[in-house]
Design goal:
The complex is a heterodimer. Helix content of chain A is 20%, strand content 34%. Chain A contains six helices and eleven strands. Chain A has an eleven-stranded mixed β-sheet, with helices on one face. In chain A, α1 runs parallel beside α3 and α2 packs antiparallel against α4. Chain A is globular, with a radius of gyration of 18 Å. In chain A, 41% of the residues are buried. Chain B is of the alpha/beta class. Among the domains of chain B are: 31 residues; 175 residues, 3-Layer(aba) Sandwich (Peroxisomal Thiolase, Chain A, domain 1), CATH 3.40.47.10. Chain B is 36% helix and 15% strand. Chain B has 14 helices and ten strands. In chain B, strands 1, 2, 3, 4, 5, 6, 7, 8, 9 and 10 form a ten-stranded mixed β-sheet that branches. In chain B, a hairpin with a 3-residue loop joins β9 and β10. In chain B, α3 packs across α14, α4 runs antiparallel to α5 and α6 runs parallel beside α11. Chain B is globular and about 75 Å long. The two termini of chain B are 21 Å apart. The chains are: A alpha+beta, B alpha/beta.
Chain lengths: 289, 425
């Protein structure tokens, strides 16, 4: 049976995330229906060395010519935001919770390679507190897929379509017995990462703006926590890897948290937990691909 | 057990003029990338080496354990020990000597010697007065004490101290010291410019014939040293105004015949012959001997960069060699005038007798054997990284020339110090 090709819309420039968050706030109501099958793409996107350097510094990666595994998300996430703020998208962006993020690096991606980006939405699924949706992304270099990711978002109280499958948001790690590092995360961590990533979601920026969305204080960006955990493993990973993390309880700012790591299946299991209460903020697996 | 340490090979990133390609890179970034390049070149992923020794001249306080931190971020095993050394521009060569000596004594079987420097991401320090106030503030226990401490801050203290390329005891820039020596030894402008042109031409030719393919790994978009001017000419250099020894109508030292501020890193893999053989790795050369010396450039009347001149005869006598017994010479081009003053001093009977205590001059060398693949005037000079560049470059040159060839290294350093070494293929 032939599958009709999904329509691909090609954007010429990186979207402005601030404007998209504003749009999202004003168009939150009255959404519903199935996931759009739109694919958004950008072609031959160059990596800005100054931006890469700022990202590396903010996340703790060494500056070199290979992109950190989490870096292409800086380029694909804005496209996903365009998709999610479009009126055709069935879930309201405010209140969407990032539950899980899986990144596959198929080979080392060099900073001087022009990247073809494409994003889409898929897997509308049922969850005990609502519905989840996956935002997919792929990055190609000259027709070769080099990187892909899946971000799973939960919309509390939303209803998945009839017959939708059960959401898959679990990541399993083995015993993590020892904290290996303590991170003292300052209260401006969200603002700093927002500056680099463009992700100016108000829940990350300040206590006041976070309160407006039901959080007692500003919370750290999940993808920043993931990037920092990965940066802590610099030098110990092969080029081709899968990093699959589940975001658990919000990491309120400021916080002192601990990183836990253990070798597992040729890679690593990781967790980020509150230093005082042990509350789990993120767990994940890093595996050779 | 005493054996000669083998030089297996080297790796460096292209050197970049200050605030250019590596403006965003820290010392740790550059040293880690350089170690990883060496790891990739010699298949050392996950390997536990005997030791990694490196250093930087301009160093942030947070980088107290720079080399170990770089090892931990690299693809080497985390169980590879490391330590930092600092001997100004002699750092890289001194690091190689330290690693080689441990190998010679059988204390380690393999090691990496390196160096890194950035003049772009240089440390800024608060002035000494403000520093004392801040320490007082940190120690204050009560609000009242803290306010008292803060009240001691004066606006003038808020200007940070920018590191200067100047000698702490004389207040003179290194170039101004070199200009004094150049004048003393009557080193002319033309011969300095000639040396600079030859350095650029030699290095450009070495790149063109692929000599650096196995010595340099591109970094942050740079594949060659961006200070290199293949089209450098005497006519162009002659147009430059002197920048050191200002106020002297006969000043000779320009930006063209002096090294610029540079960012970069280098690393050299050393090992015992047995370790190299076990790992299927080549031996390019052996480190035969080394010597350091220091001069009293403050009150003693000697030139700041003349210490290698004193180190050389000590090492030659120990080895029973003359200055002419070498196939290649690598004299670090901090300034063209430094190289020329060094050679002139060795040729000078009176100086060699009076200052070096020799019976006669060491004599002259065949200039066609000097810096045959270019040196610091062409590549630039990231202080601590220069020694590693020279050791790797000379080792490869000796290896290409065949077995039994000898090479001589001479490096001058701030503080009136000098390091010299002999390599043999």
């Amino acid at each position: 049976m032939a599958v009709p090709p999904s329509p691909v819309t090609i954007l010429d420039a990186a979207p402005n995330l601030g404007a998209l968050y504003t749009k999202a706030a004003f168009t939150a109501r009255g959404r519903g229906g199935p996931l759009p099958d739109t694919h958004l793409a950008r072609r031959a996107v160059p990596v800005d060395p100054a931006h890469l350097a700022a990202y590396d510094r903010e996340c703790g990666f060494p500056l070199d010519d290979v992109l950190p595994a989490t870096y292409p998300h800086m380029l694909t996430f804005p496209l996903q935001m365009v998709l999610m703020t479009d009126r055709a998208f069935p879930l309201a962006l405010p209140g969407l919770v990032h539950m899980r993020n899986r990144i596959d690096v198929l080979r080392a991606v060099r900073a001087d390679e022009p990247l073809d980006l494409e994003v889409w939405a898929e897997n509308f699924a049922r969850h005990r507190s609502g519905a989840t949706v996956d935002l997919g992304a792929t990055v190609q270099v000259a027709g070769e897929e080099v990187w892909r990711s899946t971000s799973t978002y939960l919309a509390r109280g939303a209803t998945a379509p009839e017959g939708a499958p059960e959401a898959d948001v679990e990541v399993t790690v083995g015993d993590l017995e020892r904290p290996v590092a303590t991170w003292r995360i300052p209260d401006d961590a969200g603002r700093r990462y927002a500056k680099v990533s463009g992700d100016v979601n108000p829940i990350h920026l300040s206590g006041l703006t976070a309160k407006a969305f039901g959080f007692k204080r500003a919370i750290a960006h999940g993808m920043w926590v993931k990037a920092r955990a990965l940066a802590a493993l610099s030098g110990r990973l092969p080029d081709a890897i899968t990093i699959d993390v589940a975001f658990r309880k919000p990491l309120f700012l400021p916080s002192t948290v601990t990183l836990w790591t253990a070798q597992a299946e040729g890679g690593w299991d990781v967790a980020v937990r509150s230093a005082s209460s042990g509350t789990e903020h993120m767990i994940g697996t890093v595996r050779p691909l | 057990m005493v054996r000669k340490a083998a030089i297996v090979g080297g790796n460096r990133i292209p050197f970049a003029r200050s605030n250019s390609a590596y403006a965003q890179a820290s010392n740790q970034d550059m040293l880690t990338a350089t170690l990883d390049g060496l790891v990739a070149r010699f298949g050392l992923q996950g390997a536990q080496l005997g030791e990694v020794v490196a250093g930087a001249v301009l160093k942030h306080a947070r980088d107290f354990n720079l080399t170990r931190e770089s090892v931990l971020g690299s693809k080497l095993s985390a169980t590879t020990p490391a330590y930092d050394v600092q001997q100004a521009c002699g750092t890289g060569l001194e690091a190689a000597i330290l690693v080689a000596n441990k190998i010679a004594l059988g204390q380690i079987e393999s090691g990496i010697a390196g160096g890194v420097d950035t003049t772009s991401d240089a440390p800024l320090a608060v002035g000494d007065d403000l520093r004392r106030v801040l320490i007082g503030l940190n120690n204050a226990r009560t609000v009242q004490d803290r306010l008292k401490a803060l009240a001691k801050i004066r606006p003038g203290q808020l200007v940070p101290e920018i590191p200067r390329n100047a000698e702490p005891r004389t207040g003179l820039a290194m170039g101004d010291h070199a200009a004094i020596t150049a004048k003393e030894w009557r080193i002319g402008r033309a011969e300095q410019d000639e040396l600079a042109v030859r350095s650029h031409a030699n290095m450009a030719a070495a790149y063109d014939r692929g000599f650096f393919d196995h010595l340099v790994t591109p970094y942050l978009g740079l594949a060659r040293d961006n200070n290199l001017r293949p089209d450098s000419s005497l006519e162009k250099l002659a147009t430059l105004e002197p920048v050191f020894g200002k106020g002297d109508p006969d000043a000779t030292m320009t930006a063209g015949n002096s090294t610029p501020l540079t960012d970069g890193a280098s690393a050299v893999l050393l090992a015992s012959d047995e370790w190299a053989a076990e790992h299927g790795l080549p031996v390019l050369a052996h480190l035969v001997d080394a010597q350091t010396a220091a001069v009293d450039y403050v009150h003693g009347g000697e030139g700041l960069l003349m210490a290698p001149v004193y180190a050389m005869p000590v090492m030659l006598a120990r080895q029973g060699l003359t200055l002419q017994d070498f196939d290649f010479y690598e004299i670090h081009e901090a300034f063209a005038s430094t190289v020329l003053a060094t050679l002139k001093a060795w040729e000078d009977d009176a100086f060699c007798k009076d200052k070096l205590g020799l019976d006669a001059a060491l004599g002259s060398i065949d200039r066609s054997k000097l810096n045959v693949n270019g040196s610091s005037l062409a590549a630039g000079h990231p202080f601590a990284a220069t020694g590693g560049r020279i050791v790797a470059q000379l080792s490869k040159q000796l290896h290409e020339a065949g077995p039994g060839k000898r090479g001589l290294i001479s490096i001058c350093a701030a503080g009136g110090q000098g390091v010299v070494a002999i390599l043999e293929s």
